[in-house]
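Query form — protein ABC transporter ATP-binding protein

QUESTION: What is the three-dimensional structure of this chain?
INPUT:
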Amino acid sequence: MSDTYQPDGTEDVPAAAVPPAEAIPALEVRDVTVRFAGLTALDSVSFTVAPGSVHAVIGPNGAGKSTCFNVLSGVYRATSGSVRFGTAELTALPPHRIAALGMARTFQNIALSPHLSVRDNLMLGRHRLTRAGFLSAGLRLPSARREAARHGERVAEIAAFVGLTGHLATPVGLLPYGVQKRIELARALCMEPRLLMLDEPVAGMNGGERREMAELIVAVRESLGISILLVEHDMGMVMRLADAVTVLDFGKRIADGPPELVQNDPEVIRAYLGATSETEEAST
Ligand SMILES: Nc1ncnc2c1ncn2[C@@H]1O[C@H](COP(=O)(O)OP(=O)(O)O)[C@@H](O)[C@H]1O
Ligand SMILES: [Mg+2]
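ANSWER: The structure tokens for ABC transporter ATP-binding protein are given below.
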């Protein structure tokens, strides 16, 4: 018997809004078609991201990679087809509902607030997990202060993991491009995702920055055990990192499987050779 007064058992609501470690479900993309006026950007594309794997979607410019990404994150609506993350059907959900299922993304072009510090940009990444909300934080309620402190600690941990500790107080806009791309990845990690979606994470980077980013992606997979969907133009990078590769060309899936099989596929070689001039343009 307890002598603590608990009228209806609602007193003891835990302060933490961080979800418990949940099982990582598969992401199943089935027959997804996306049409824009007169153009089929994705044509009945299917693939499965296995739990805890690095899955790459590659293809020449205009192949439909970003469109695919935008459908998975709810930015574009599929014309037909289905996307399932575990038991959830995503194709009718808005972006914030998809994010709430634990799918976090980065953008092909940097989407950070350049005037805010690295720390503040990362704190914004924790918004989905913030129970008290920024209003009560603004009112300085003690519970909100405690919660902010807890999120601040997690932000510091993630910053350390991604190698950003020394930059936490710096406005994002003052940092080099390669560092900004890592901040984007850190911000996505701040959402405690179960699936991390990276759109061309090494685009525009020099060789050293590319290697660093590749190592970071491996470290994320190994230490967090989450699934990673990597949309990438650069085939070499993908072949070293990915467990499975889906190749798109003009909106169609032309190959799917382990990297060593895919990279020797004649149709894949043809698609990439046909796009050589574009590839060179894109990497300058
Ligand atoms: N919002 C849109 N409206 C019209 N066409 C689009 C839109 N987004 C992409 N496209 C077209 O869809 C095709 C695939 O584009 P995209 O998915 O960006 O390719 P990738 O990322 O592989 O380079 C391209 O022909 C592109 O012009
Ligand atoms: Mg793209």
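ADDITIONAL NOTE: Strands lie at 27-36, 39-49, 54-58, 80-85, 88-89, 103-105, 195-199, 227-232, 244-249, 252-257.
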